[in-house]
Amino acid sequence: MARTAPIDTATEAATPIRGTRTVRPRTHRSVPPHHSTPRTIVVHPDADLTAQSVASRCVTELIERQSRTSPLHVAVTGGGLGLAIWPALAAHPALGAVDWTGVHLWFSDERFVPLDSPDRNDRAVLKVMSRLGLPPANLHRVPGPDTVRNVTAAAKAYAADLAAWADPTRDDVAAPWFALSILGIGPDGHVASLFPGQPTRRSGTVVPISDSPKPPAQRVSFTRRVLMRSDEVWFIAAGEPKAGAIGRALAGDDPACTPAAGLHGATRTYWFIDAALAQALWQRTGADCPCPDCDIPPRTDKEN
Questions:
Q1: Which CATH number describes the domain made up of 36-285?
Q2: pLDDT tens column, 174-205
Q3: Closest Cα partner for 278 from 23, 85, 55?
Q4: Domain ranges, ordered by start, for the chain
């Protein structure tokens, strides 16, 4: 079983446990002070194993949920780890137990580039579609400049696609309810294509981005409202450079400064990170690692 330990939420930042190659992934659970749903941080030895673990957990989650309901809507992301999930998922031994005809995949953001561009987030899914058995109609792609006149038209078209799958018995939001939303986070704290310093978009479902600080400048993104329209939200990240942004997000920073801050699932939020990021993160929080066999000495620069 994964090791668990308490988190002192009074520090306003969760303290993940460091993972090593000789132990199983370790888990922290807490109820953060900023919302009422539990938050779990799971640490894996490296980025590759993090992607493989998320892929495996995704298969298990889909199998379990399909025993209760169908169809399932899942929102996915790009980025290094987000793209690495798909080959790992396609190679999973239990892949055949998932009924992919009952799964709809959506993209929380997409670059406004032609549909055949290798820079698109959906290319990783397209490469494994046939192996998954995912019907083309269940892959909801954001239009590109080869199919619509501009990025605003692409956002409107994607919003209309979301609205077509809305559940009016749940609420009046023009989008489906997601069983799972997988999100990456950038070193600056951006999530999907919502970047620091941009206007906080709380209304609507999809927004066109014309001034992304990360190329390409034009993108289409879910709004915060839709990013949290999910039973579970899974953040995936690896590497020390993201420690600052994740620390701010966990501490409940202003979303205008750290867009990932405050995002959570309706029932649970997971953070899947690697050991290098975990070590950098808890060192930043000023807390000692609670793991009894950790080889990192306690901090000596904390105030008494």
A1: 3.40.50.1360
A2: 999 999 999 999 999 999 999 998 876 667 99
A3: 23
A4: 36-285
